[in-house]
Amino acid sequence: MAPSETGGPARPTRRQLASARCYDRLMRRADPYWEGPVRRRLLGGLTGRVLDLGAGTGKSLPDLAGAGHVTAVEPAPGRRALLAERARRAPVPVEVADADAERLPYPDASFDAVCCVLMLCSVGDQARALAEIRRVLAPGGTLAFIEHVREEEPGARALLQRAVAPPQRALLGCDLRRRTEEAIGAAGFAFEEIERHRPFGPLVPSQPIITGRASAPR
Ligand SMILES: C[S@@+](CC[C@H](N)C(=O)[O-])C[C@H]1O[C@@H](n2cnc3c(N)ncnc32)[C@H](O)[C@@H]1O
Fold first, then answer.
1. Which residue minimizes the CA distance to atom 17 of ligand 1?
2. Residue 27 Cβ contacting ligand 1 at under 6 Å
3. Are residues 59 and 38 in contact, defined by beta-carbon separation less than 8 angstroms?
4. What are the angstrom distances between the C-alpha of 133 and each of 50, 81, 143, 199?
5. Architecture of 3-215 per CATH?
6. 59, 94, 98, 119: which to mutate for ligand 1, most atoms within 8 A of CB?
7. Averaged over 165-174, what is the pLDDT?
8. Which of 160, 61, 159 is nearest to 115 (CA)?
9. Predicted confidence (pLDDT) per residue in 69-102, tens digit
């Protein structure tokens, strides 16, 4: 997320909208490589009340067809405007909300499932966001995730990742070095499935990518 996109008035500026459209086009290009089929399979299985956290421009909405109701949270005004357009065409009822993953405005146990796609890399305080996710999930509820994480295997990619992470964080708002799998476990979730993908060329630093599901304690 570009820092300039956060905060500000609820109505997006032209610049925020242009940046959101740019982001949307960029993300679509990832689809043929890996994200489309993985996202479809993982999100397609979510049922009941689903929270799409850091929903961006709504790319996950078509895949959440098994949900009874989706709450799509996105704090960036430009992305939220495109998200609202997509929500109207979604296969299930979608409510779009401006909220912060670190302070979710929902009561305990409000959702049966939460999906985080490339969100836990950008949230300010990851542990706090995961505690909030756990709080708003019903006991035994599902956290579905697709997240790029820190490269732990020594080598050129790990070195490159560490080098480009600070400027990437400053420019795009996402941190390449997060140990998200450990953070999900530390928040009390139990993994039901987890896969580690390295779908891009050896020097692309936004990998490995972990995908899977974990359940909240009962
Ligand atoms: C890389 S984008 C992914 C968007 C979408 N999930 C997708 O797959 O296209 C990360 C999103 O997380 C949102 N985000 C960042 N910090 C957040 C926070 N504290 N609470 C909720 N969303 C946040 C950003 O605004 C951004 O749209």
1. 123
2. yes
3. no
4. 11, 24, 8, 28
5. 3-Layer(aba) Sandwich (3.40)
6. 119
7. 91
8. 61
9. 999 999 999 999 999 999 999 999 999 999 999 9
